Amino acid sequence: MSALVHRSFGDPAEVLAVEERPLPQPGPGQVRVRMLLSPIHNHDLMTIRGEYGFKPELPAPAGTEALGVVDALGEGVDRLAVGQRVAGGAFGVWAEYYLADAAGLIPVPEGLPDEAAAQLVQMPFSAVSLLHRLDLQEGDWLIQNAANGAVGRMVAQLAAVRGLNVVGLVRRAAGVDELREQGIERVVATDDDGWRERVAAITGGAPIRVGVDSVGGSASGDLASVLGDGGALVIFGAMASGRVEVATSDILFRGVTVRGFWGSAVGKELSPETRAQLFGELFARVTDGTLTLPVDSVHPLAEARAAVEASGRPGRVGKVLLRGA
């Protein structure tokens, strides 16, 4: 079977290559899945560069989320059936076939499109888990940067259904229009010197309880500066910098706290009942159109370089997907 593999850490467009590998055989509790579609996430590319919290042994496969069809069952698997569509996470899904723990796979309901189901588990589940973890109350205010990124859009859409107020920050004015076209309002471009005043006008002076930072660097400090006293800055990602730059005065005199959110770790802490409840919320929101999961482009495994380049294109709207067997 064909699989994307990298034999060194580096630029994914340069080090990823298609190789032929033996068809994997599922062990106890595992299933073999025929991959249909798999999104390219930032953390996938960081892993290939050797910059993520998980560093695989080389030569390494790649990809962590996919939609597929169950192709073979390992011993003891009775909750899934051959031919069933499933979504979920496993390492090395950028291949025609991959192995996954049966317990971690999510059966995909009829009527849910493949392109939406392929993206459902990691980013949307991280977004809904984040909102669950923040424990905000209806009417509370939240601010986030990278509001026109995939997670930013999801947080805004899911938060609105929960009755939360969200202000989004983008780095350019064009991002405001992009989000407005998707029905997402209350967006401010930080290339305007008066952006803090615009945020205050939107909230009407109400305290902002939480800031979600997906950028890092000075952008972290920008978020902290507009939080209410005692607010929390939650580090979700680090698109621009591996450092968090927050003014000492915000922490010392205004009681702003800083903490991290790593979806992979938080997901493991959730009870099965809570996981089921949150996935049920996602299924409902995708089905009724409240949560939109746009796709930028779809590429076969053999076009990995083009797919990676498309994923890094500024202003991209929607995920780039790899197509399997």
Structure characterization notes:
The structure is a single chain. With 325 residues, this protein is an alpha/beta fold. It folds into two domains: 149 residues, Medium-chain alcohol dehydrogenases, catalytic domain (Quinone Oxidoreductase, Chain A, domain 1, Alpha-Beta Complex), CATH 3.90.180.10; 143 residues, Rossmann fold (3-Layer(aba) Sandwich), CATH 3.40.50. 32% of the residues lie in helices and 25% in strands. It contains twelve helices and 16 strands. The strands form three sheets. Strands 3, 5, 6, 7, 8, 15 and 16 form a seven-stranded mixed β-sheet that branches. Strands 11-10-9-12-13-14 form a six-stranded parallel β-sheet, sandwiched between helices. A three-stranded antiparallel β-sheet has the order 2-1-4. Strand 9, helix 5 and strand 10 form a beta-alpha-beta unit. The protein starts with a strand and ends with a strand.
CATH architecture of the largest domain: Alpha-Beta Complex
Number of strands: 16
Main pleated-sheet profile: 7 strands, mixed
Strand coverage percent: 15-25%
Tally the helices. Answer: 12
Kindly name the structural category: alpha/beta
Write the CATH homologous superfamily of the largest domain. Answer: Medium-chain alcohol dehydrogenases, catalytic domain
Reading off the top of the CATH hierarchy, the class of the largest domain is best stated as Alpha Beta
Number of domains: 2
Average of pLDDT: 92
Domain Enoyl reductase (ER): 11-322
EC number: 1.3.1.104
Organism: Leifsonia williamsii
InterPro entries: ADH-like_C, ADH-like_N, ER, GroES-like_sf, Mito_Enoyl-ACP_Reductase, NAD(P)-bd_dom_sf
